[in-house]
Amino acid sequence: MKSYDIVIIGGGPAGLAAAVSAKENGIDSILILERDKELGGILNQCIHNGFGLHTFKEELTGPEYAQRFIDQAEKLGIEYKLNTMVMDISPQKTVTAMNRQEGMFEIQAKAVILAMGCRERSRGALNIPGYRPAGIYSAGTAQRLVNMEGLMPGREVVILGSGDIGLIMARRMTFEGAKVKVVAELMPYSGGLKRNIVQCLDDYGIPLKLSHTVVDIKGRKRLEGVTLAEVDSNGKPIPGTEEFYSCDTLLLSVGLIPENEISNGMGVQMNPVTSGPEVNESLETNIEGVFACGNVLHVHDLVDFVSEEAATAGKNAAAYVKGIRQAGGGRDVRLNPVDGVRYTVPMMVNTARMDENLTIRFRVGGVYKNCYVSTYFDDERVIHRKRQIVAPGEMEEIRLTKEQLLKYPDLETITVKIEEA
Amino acid sequence: MEIRKLTCISCPMGCPLTVEMEGDEIISVTGNTCKRGDVYARKEVTDPTRIVTSTVKVIGGKADMVSVKTREDVPKGKVFDCVKALKGVEIKAPVHIGDIIVPDAAGTGIDIVATKNVEEV
């Protein structure tokens, strides 16, 4: 059996940044396994601009952003296999994978970095009534068809869900000559970035209907139209508000779910809120030497933060392989997300292992205006930051230092919460 | 006097902005809750610009399509003209990031360039 120091599952933005970072931190034996025919992952179909403002201080398109990291990986001589599907990883880090050239094969890894990304929530998860005609796509599928295959899914489009991919596709389909009639969002607020609402919908006069959903689908073979209705505060359709839209295409942009079949198979402990692994300050899962980063860990809005997070995972995996990671000593401090904060990544911090600086990322469960994002070390409030607005669509972060934590030798819990002004 | 209504994109707040104009002159910006909203509104009503991104067909390449963009922002009013300038355009592989696909798109003086590498088969 072949063996590598670090095997990285997935060659998208997270896998690439993790590989580059691991190499720069002294590991030569690295292998990336990618199931698609090229590196770069989902960025290859995200042809719009707006990537890289944080990382490169310029606005790149998805393929350009990916290429920057692919070039770095090539330059560093990082090994990768394309068209290769990972089937299973054992708790002892034996990776079972397959491709057309080698058939089924096994690779032994000293450390594993999970970077599989996420998948779109499908129609099946929504319980939309009606027939199942052709013409209903997830927004990402339509994006791949239009941008990579050069195919148009349809001419008259309704979009359900205001996730960023749906908004981006509203503009993209408009450019390709389609009529995008409306975007319906179940929640009373949009799930996408403000800038996408303005530049993808408002610019083209596409209406966004908040608190609306699809209640019926018409058409047996091909979609003929959908019925939208307003929903009440419990998300239930309000009778009498139904409105019919004729269309041949319905795009679903209703959320992303980390793709963790392999993680589950190897016994990685999951966080039910993020559907991603529970990790510590090193982005290490409950299985020693198994790290996670990017959208497989929790769904991000900006790839820049994926790259940053993945670099941390790569660095820590390198330290683990070299055996220079502090194993003993220090205190394990739990993070406790409450009062509007849905989750934090990481969920646990070891005061000995942590770097000088630690970024805690989290999302809130609703829209809060004129509030405070507060951090408590046990009962003492140590950060109290005024915010004009926090919203579920935009990931938040707080930064802690080792120095700060070491001042509290008995610290057990770090609580992150939203406090009303 | 003309009234323009915008949504600020400077942060998730999304302040509803109202701009009062007299011809090309901005009389007032209201609705913003910070300085950035004022700056955004003034730029958006006097000189709104966008990067246009799309795809074109590739002949003899490892991929069927190559992604493209206007190298710089173009005036918002020229967005659809740039999209039209790409209609029917086909390019022979290999194509590399930065290669000019359509020079001086729609008279904007700005080239449309490739944003992806597509090698020959």
Total number of helical segments of chain B?
A: 2
Q: Give the radius of gyration of chain A.
A: 22 Å
Number of helices of chain A: 8
Distance between the termini of chain B: 60 Å
Radius of gyration of chain B: 19 Å
Poorly predicted ranges of chain B: none
Query: How confident is the prediction overall: mean pLDDT of chain B?
Result: 93
Alpha carbon gap, first and last residue of chain A: 60 Å
Largest sheet of chain A, described in full?
Answer: 7 strands, mixed
Low-confidence stretches of chain A are none
Largest interface (C-beta under 8 Å) = A-B, 31 and 29 residues
What is the helix fraction of residues of chain A, given as a range? 10-25%
**What value does the average pLDDT of chain A take?**
94
* Percentage of residues in strands of chain A: 35-45%
Name the overall outline of chain A: globular
In total, the number of strands of chain A is 29
Strand percentage of chain B lies at 35-45%
Strand numbers in spatial order across the main sheet of chain B: 8-5-6-10-9
Structural class per helix/strand content of chain B?
alpha+beta
What features would you describe in this structure?
The complex is a heterodimer of chains A (421) and B (121). Chain A has 421 residues and is an alpha/beta fold. Chain A is 21% helix and 36% strand. In chain A, strands 1, 2, 5, 6, 7, 8 and 21 form a seven-stranded mixed beta sheet that branches. Chain A is globular. Chain B is an alpha+beta fold and 121 residues long. In chain B, 16% of the residues lie in helices and 37% in strands. Chain B is built from two helices and ten strands. Chain B has helices at residues 35-46, 79-85, and strands spanning 2-7, 16-22, 25-30, 49-50, 53-59, 65-70, 74-75, 90-92, 100-102, 112-114. In chain B, the strands form three sheets. Chain B has a five-stranded mixed beta sheet with strand order 8-5-6-10-9, with helices on one face. The model of chain B has no long low-confidence stretch (mean pLDDT 93). At the A-B interface, strand 4, helix 2, helix 3, helix 5 and strand 27 of A face strand 5 and strand 6 of B.
